[in-house]
Write a sequence for this structure.
């Protein structure tokens, strides 16, 4: 089926995979500004690395999910510029900035490696492993199989801490997610320790998509068959569920999430309505003065097929992305880059 999808895309057709069924791409779907080169196996989740010296030279890091998969790095034209070492089914990936490793601030990409039950840490932009072979997660649990991951950067009293919040294929409600504090060592490697276990789970499908809002200090996760859950990201902030929204808006699965930050406190939460090939848009700041009240603002049809993962930035990346971009995974082993202006226009039309 995947070969048929690639052929159809090359011919401009609308044949797509929807499980074992065929589903058409919507005629009103927005077109990507860029489609990346294809990976060998199965793309799943992207993350955007902003080049601190020149945002127009920023990069996308995405997973290729297979037993001999890896992380792939793309430029803003969609060209593959590097592949990581081979990984055993990397699933999701996220990026954070300024972890002290070997005495210097280091940007990192962290991915789950499902078949080894580890998370893997890579320095950026060289995409080299700095984890001494990986960090075991969910140790001692009957259910491990790590899938989703999001990184939370917290600054207190001028000290910066970076945490990995990790999800899995299945697990107990109340402690489905485990939060790890990353630590850089003098020898140039990274280790991690568990600092928190939290997160409700319906038991329906899994929790894979996780997204952190550093500025607002919260984490969202998709209970895939039920809705979107919200918690404080601070490991000392308590485990109370702050919101559970989007429960009736989706065709089936709640999948990849991206946060578009218009200001430090406003913007949008975008969630893949996977089987509908659309993104559901919610207000980042909440509604009616309540930061935990969410109402669907818009549904954006996209060219992506059964999107698993996404990321967004509002920074000016130059060229095709003056107001930033949404990058989203698509069947066919690619990622699609969208000019944010195109998405914002549709959101504005829906809100009117």
């Amino acid at each position: 089926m995947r070969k048929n999808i690639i052929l159809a895309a090359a011919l401009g057709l609308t044949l797509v995979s929807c499980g074992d069924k065929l589903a058409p791409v919507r005629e009103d779907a927005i077109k990507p500004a860029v489609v990346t080169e294809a990976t060998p196996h199965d793309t799943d989740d992207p993350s955007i690395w902003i080049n601190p010296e020149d945002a127009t030279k920023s990069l996308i890091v995405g997973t290729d999910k297979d037993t001999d998969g890896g992380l792939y790095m793309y430029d803003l034209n969609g060209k593959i510029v590097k592949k990581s070492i081979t990984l055993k089914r990397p699933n999701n990936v996220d990026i954070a900035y300024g972890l002290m490793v070997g005495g210097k601030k280091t940007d990192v990409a962290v991915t789950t490696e499902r078949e080894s039950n580890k998370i893997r840490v890579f320095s950026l932009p060289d995409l080299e492993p700095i984890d001494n072979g990986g960090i075991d997660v969910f140790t001692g649990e009957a259910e491990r199989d790590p899938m989703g991951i999001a990184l939370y950067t917290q600054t207190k009293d001028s000290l910066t801490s970076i945490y990995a919040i990790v999800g899995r294929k299945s697990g107990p409600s109340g402690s489905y997610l485990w939060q790890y504090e990353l630590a850089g060592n003098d020898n140039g490697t990274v280790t991690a320790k568990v600092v928190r276990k939290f997160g409700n789970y319906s038991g329906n499908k899994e929790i894979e998509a996780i997204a952190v809002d550093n500025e607002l200090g919260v984490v969202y996760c998709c209970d895939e068959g039920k809705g979107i859950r919200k918690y404080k990201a601070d490991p000392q902030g308590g485990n109370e569920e702050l919101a559970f929204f989007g429960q009736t808006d989706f065709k089936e699965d709640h999948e990849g999430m991206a946060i578009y930050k218009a200001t430090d406190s406003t913007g949008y939460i975008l969630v893949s309505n996977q089987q509908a090939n659309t993104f559901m848009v919610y207000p980042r700041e909440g509604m009616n003065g309540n930061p935990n009240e969410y109402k669907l603002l818009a549904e954006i049809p996209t060219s992506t097929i059964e999107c698993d993962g996404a990321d967004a930035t509002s920074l000016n990346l130059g060229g095709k992305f003056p107001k930033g971009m949404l990058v989203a995974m698509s069947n066919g082993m690619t990622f699609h880059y969208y000019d944010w202006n195109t998405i914002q226009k549709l959101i504005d039309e829906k809100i009117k």
